[in-house]
Amino acid sequence: MDVIHIKRLEIFANHGVIPEENTLGQKFIISADLYKDLRKAGRTDDVEETVHYGKAAVLIKQISEKSVFRLIEKLAEEIADALLKNFPVERVKVVIEKPWAPVRLPLDTVAVEIERSWHTAYLSIGSNIGEREKFLDNAVKKLDNKIDTRVTKVSKYIETEPYGNVQQEKFLNGCVEIRTLLTPSELLKKATEIEKEEGRIRTLHWGPRTLDIDILLYDNETIYTEDLKIPHIDMHNRMFVLEPLCEIAPYAYHPALGKSVMRLKQKLENKL
């Protein structure tokens, strides 16, 4: 991806662990790389197709001067977050140098470098208690908070038989595509919080529920921990997942199985 560099912006601010750093202040040197496809800007000469680096630099200066942080790691996080939310960029890299760091040793500078980006994830949503459609609509609205997560596609809702061996009412299921700044673990926490807000009580595995939100895919990552498994460990065996997911993302890739969602759906159809 193309990149716009803002190199070594000098700012006087009040960040540091030592009290004197917070009152007297010191110099910080901040660089930012803004990643975006610039081909259209280069072809059209249209300023709307690029990033206003002057405004980006002003935003960096404002964030650096308006608050006091103990750690430059925190400052870097705040800057990266603001750049991603306020400018049409996919990824940013922020480097903060602290040349007057009080370490009492001969050095040029200490620095922190971080990279943050937008991610694409696919989630399944389901309900089989009460006003099922309302619960699913509420889930979509709460995911689409416009702050750290944006819903970009929503499938039609389909009615399906319950999965597993528990006798219960039919489910209403769908899938959602989101763009998010959250990590997989943060996204899992957010999904669990939304479930609780909609009255989800976890008492019986595969049992009835007001709302169920599962992370199916997150970029092309493969994660296997006690609390989180991505891709979803059983999504390829669930037509109630593959059918709505294929509607909004037929070519989304399952990194563990090496197949597209469309191919997984076709393979499961042949088994049924």
Keywords for this entry:
single chain; 272 residues; alpha+beta; GTP Cyclohydrolase I, domain 2; Alpha-Beta Plaits; 2 domains; five-stranded antiparallel β-sheet; four-stranded antiparallel β-sheet; 8 helices; elongated
- Count of helical stretches: 8
Give me the Rg, rounded: 23 Å
- What is the CATH top level name of the largest domain? Alpha Beta
What is the overall silhouette?
elongated
Percent of residues in β-strands = 25-35%
CATH third-tier fold name of the largest domain? Alpha-Beta Plaits
Order of helices and strands: EHEHHHEEEHEEEHEEEHEEH
**Overall number of structural domains:** 2
Average per-residue pLDDT, rounded, comes to 94
The fourth-level CATH homologous superfamily of the largest domain is: 7,8-Dihydro-6-hydroxymethylpterin-pyrophosphokinase HPPK
Number of strands: 13
Low-confidence stretches: none
Largest sheet: 5 strands, antiparallel
The secondary structure category is: alpha+beta
Cα(first) to Cα(last) distance is 42 Å
Q: Name the helicity range.
A: 25-40%
CATH A-level architecture of the largest domain:
2-Layer Sandwich
